[in-house]
Known about the structure:
Blueprint: H1 2-9, H2 13-21, H3 26-32, H4 38-50, E1 54-59, H5 67-86, E2 93-97, H6 109-126, E3 131-133, H7 141-154, E4 159-163, H8 169-176, E5 182-186, H9 201-217, E6 221-225, H10 229-241, E7 250-254, H11 259-267, E8 273-279, H12 284-293, H13 295-306
Parallel strand pairs: 1-2, 1-8, 2-3, 3-4, 4-5, 5-6, 6-7, 7-8
Helix pairs in contact: 1-12, 5-6, 6-7, 8-9, 9-10, 12-13
Dihydroflavine-adenine dinucleotide binds near residues 134 and 257.
Amino acid sequence: MLGPLLLAASGSDRIRRFVSGAPMTRPVVDRFIAGDALPDALATVRALAARGIDVTLDHLGEDITEVSQAHRSRDAYLALLDALGAEGLGDRAEVSVKLSAFGQSLPGGRRLALEGARAVCAKAAEIGTTVTLDMEDHTTVDSTLAILAELRRDFPRTGVAVQAALFRTEQDVRALASSGSRVRLVKGAYKEPASVAHQRRQDVDRAYARCLNTLMAGEGYPMVGSHDPRVIDLALKLAERYGRAPDSYEFQMLYGIRDGEQRRLAAEEGRRVRAYIPYGSDWYGYFMRRLAERPANLAFFLRSLLTR
Ligand code: FDA
């Protein structure tokens, strides 16, 4: 019940101002966000790399209203990639981009987002890494997949996230499970209407299993984006069934969630694990989605308010 309320709150400016301004929020935010600035993110990348965990970095920012903000997002990614290149981290770190931060929902947004993403893909290729497009709510899927197709012409390793919760995704993964494609399968973090998405957890989980089977059986590079132990077991079983080598797919988890499991998996011979690291000052939407996802995250937040 609380999940949908928190997801609704993630779009409210009033609640955003209240939560963002409250000093007691910060320690909880720090569990999920790797700091406000680039040096914070780089320190986290180095620490994880030392444990054999690769990363994908998300410079936080979404729901923008002006073209200048889209340019600022693009420039933040260019600076991030320059810094990763300077530290020789191109082989351990890629970046994750929300096209809304590049102006996707503004008038003429498709072109604007494509131009921003293209500049970021070019810089990523320069330092030997790549870009994955995050997936946002269902109204953005067609536009995101169209932008992906354009980017892949010049940057074939560009990846995309797809959400098992959406009915359409089973069809989308069939089209995407082809040679050279990189697809991150997630359950889906947005509140979606019953006309387009499964509403019950068990239905999402079953859809996830079917999509994962399609990706593992296919010729692309599956990225298993989940903390769910049943999903991780299933991925390992499917990899065995389809004769996949450990370096032909990877596990992805969010920064601050199941760190022990990330380390355990990464310690296994040849296993690839990537942590998704969000950083930046615009953390509100991302933070609220994490609280909505799991009662334990919310309980942790409420406890920290009471114990201060
Ligand atoms: P779910 O939340 O259903 O939990 C299942 C089980 O996992 C739990 O019962 C528990 O056993 C375990 N678990 C989960 N959280 C835990 C915790 N904090 N501590 C201990 N155990 C825990 N979404 C989206 O819409 N677009 C996107 O682009 C992305 N990108 C993305 C990247 C990466 C790398 C990840 C991991 C996730 C995303 N997501 C996303 C978010 C995704 O859609 C989803 O909301 C979360 O991953 C939560 O779903 P899970 O599959 O983790 O399991």
